[in-house]
Model the fold of this input.
Amino acid sequence: MVCLCMTSYAQGTEKPTMPDRAEFADATAGYRRELLAYCYRILGSIDEAEDVVQEIYLRAWRSYATFERRSSVRTWLYRIATNACLTASAQNARRPLPSGMAGPSSDTNVPSTPDGTDISWLQPFPTASTHAGPSDPAWVVESRGNLRLAFIAALQLLPPRQRAVLILRDVLAWRAAEVADLLGISPVAVKSILQRARAQLARTAPDEAEITEPAEPRLRRLLEAYVSALENADITTLVQLLRADARFEMPPFSTWFEGRDAVARFIGSRVLDQPGTLRLMPTQANGQPAVAAYRRGIDGVHRAHAIHVLTIDNTSITRIVAFLDADLFSRFDLPREHP
Done:
């Protein structure tokens, strides 16, 4: 065997060369953030998206020496990313929010632990730590694309390939021919897939034209009032902040509530204990206002409890999704204990 191998090299078989690390980093590093957002849109999980991005760069590193540059580095990376995401999607079920599973509840007697349903829930995407500017490609993609929770939840209702086509065409504004080349299908097939995806999305996703967030001062006042109401266990103020048809969800619990009275009744009886039980820190998720909630333990220490993602219109809070997952705090660069 050794002799055969030596003969093979002697006859001209070249050992694969490894790419230059600095050259590879210069060519690919600038796309990491937008690839993360792309993978998150398809997978609905920041944890899975992070893992897939690591896999993308590993695959890219291994094949960079043979990359023939018939397309741009960005297109090449998106080809790897799409294949990796479709493979991951085939192995994992879609990630819903509780409101996508069943109707709202009127019973505030929710068990203290999740109901045992084996569901992988939608996760929030951290945007508070993004220090990008207008010249940053990642900032451009995220500003044009849609990361709102309701949109990501609607995407999860689509088959994985429809998700990829719709994101590439409608969010990233790729041409049909580019998407067809990336997926190895015809432009006609891309248009057909896109048509079906748009029809489904029109039935489930919010109309972006109707979403009007308040100006920054008003938004800040609403957020500060929400923080104050929870920290001071002030249910009266909280009720005043909620729109009449407000929703409250709390994955991993499948139970959720709709309507100001139902939401206030649950939060007042099961969330708000006494002033000082909760401490909150402002953050941002999916391009929306959010707060990190720390709950006081019996030792008096406030520890990571939940990430609340808020949907706010011009006058009130319309939706609260409280992700009860302390492990998310590290994704948001937040401490595990309130400082």
In short: Strands lie at 242-249, 256-258, 278-285, 288-296, 302-312, 317-323. The CA atoms of residues 28 and 73 lie 7 Å apart. The first strand starts at residue 242 and ends at 249.
